[in-house]
Design brief:
Layout: H1 9-16, H2 19-44, H3 60-74, H4 101-105, H5 123-142, H6 150-177, E1 198-201, E2 204-208, E3 224-228, E4 231-234, H7 240-248, H8 260-268, H9 287-296, H10 304-313, E5 323-329, E6 353-357, E7 373-375, E8 384-385
Parallel strand pairs: 5-8
Antiparallel strand pairs: 1-4, 2-3, 5-6, 6-7
Helix pairs in contact: 2-5, 2-6, 3-5, 3-6, 8-9
This protein binds fe (ii) ion.
């Protein structure tokens, strides 16, 4: 696979690289976490970082404490960290640097609503906790052999990606709280041509999922051979210019363009006018709206295998501007085995929809054509748009 085009060489390098790239990724993630924390502090420090309860938010102090907790739990406190995916997630951990950390920051045990009731440490203490746990992590990374194995590197890579995912979520949260974020935490992405150009992808057998050495998420395994019929797919995500034609055509009032779930969602919600810069990818759309646009245009959403195949085999395929809804329900590939971080994938199968791609808030270490993101179809706070297929 040629990993030098399409802008995912950083993610490919990180997943298959050694100790030095893991260290660089841990430091890059932390730098982004702290720049975002500064942006939050500018607006929220005066109110003790308190934010209103919402299902799509976490208290910011909880987010940062949780990032540090996750790192310490899987690295410094994990006696089986060198076993990688063979680590027993339930083995007894050594105590935390922060005695009450498990009771506050363990996302599997502390329910979402509870996070708002905790007496969390203040910002200064939380930052010191972030710094101390990263310090422990880097020392343990340094202690690995120079040619460390994938098993030995597994948790270091996982915690770097976990922190980048939380940084991305912090960008979404900032958006819904009206907190401006610095441009330095976002990637620059190419503008679209909006010309509706398409690529013809021949029918073929295609191996989806992760094969070979390096880091993989559990839901990318095992590699799966799929037979694809010939299809045609947009070279780029649907722009606002193209989405607006659907709005102007009365698409939000025409029952015929919506499936049952989509129409029910539309009736139950006060959906604000969807608009944005005409040359940019349409975003903050639900899967329902993406599907309605496709039906109006006489097209459909690609399934996740078509998307992945096009991204990996078609040099003209442009991605990375926005997460893209696919037609695929989030399901395990045959042979799925949950990795030690049990709650990453398994609890979300069946109820969520797969998105592929990446958005400007996605770290370069995460943005990979094999990566499966997943959200409930009615989410519109995510930087999610779509491309169409036929
Ligand atoms: Fe987390």
């Amino acid at each position: 696979m040629d990993a030098t085009w399409q802008g995912y060489s950083a993610a490919q390098g990180f997943r298959t690289g050694g100790r030095d790239l893991a260290r660089a990724a841990l430091l890059a993630a932390r730098s982004r976490t702290l720049r975002l924390a500064d942006a939050y502090a500018d607006v929220l420090a005066g109110q003790g970082f308190r934010v209103p309860y919402r299902e799509t938010l976490n208290p910011p102090l909880w987010e940062w404490g949780h990032v540090a907790w996750f790192q310490e739990w899987w690295i410094a406190r994990n006696a089986q960290r060198s076993r990688g995916v063979a680590c027993d997630p339930d083995h007894a951990r050594v105590p935390s640097r922060m005695p009450e950390a498990d009771a506050m920051y363990d996302s599997s045990r502390v329910a979402h609503t509870r996070r708002w009731e905790l007496a969390l440490p203040d910002a200064k203490t939380t930052r010191a906790w972030l710094a101390a746990t990263l310090d422990d992590t880097l020392k343990l990374l340094e202690a690995l052999p120079e040619r460390a194995s994938d098993a030995e590197l597994y948790f270091f890579r996982l915690v770097a990606l976990h922190e980048e995912m939380h940084a991305e979520a912090s960008v979404y949260m900032a958006g819904s709280l009206g907190i401006p974020v610095p441009a330095s935490v976002l990637r620059e992405v190419p503008q679209l041509s909006s010309d509706g150009a398409t690529l013809k992808v021949p029918g073929q057998g295609f191996t989806t999922g992760w094969s070979g050495p390096g880091f993989a998420f559990d839901n990318e395994l095992q590699p799966l051979e799929v037979q694809l019929q010939a299809f045609e797919i947009d070279t780029e995500p649907v722009s606002w210019a193209r989405f607006r034609e659907f709005v102007d055509a009365g698409g939000y009032r025409a029952r015929a363009y919506w499936d049952e779930d989509g129409w029910a969602w539309l009736q139950a919600n006060d959906v604000p006018a969807r608009e944005g810069p005409l040359q940019a990818a349409s975003t903050h759309l639900t899967a329902h709206e993406a599907q309605a646009w496709c039906r109006w245009a006489g097209r459909r959403l690609p399934n996740e295998f078509e998307w992945e195949c096009a991204a990996l085999t078609q040099p003209g395929f442009s991605w990375g501007q926005v997460w893209e809804w696919t037609a695929s329900k989030f399901l395990p590939y045959p042979g799925f085995m949950p990795h030690p971080y049990r709650d990453y994938s398994a609890p979300w199968f069946e109820t969520r929809r797969v998105l592929r791609g990446a958005c400007p808030a996605t770290s370069v270490t995460l943005a990979h054509p094999r990566y499966r993101n997943f959200f409930e179809p009615q989410r519109s706070d995510v930087f999610a748009g779509f491309r169409s297929c036929a």
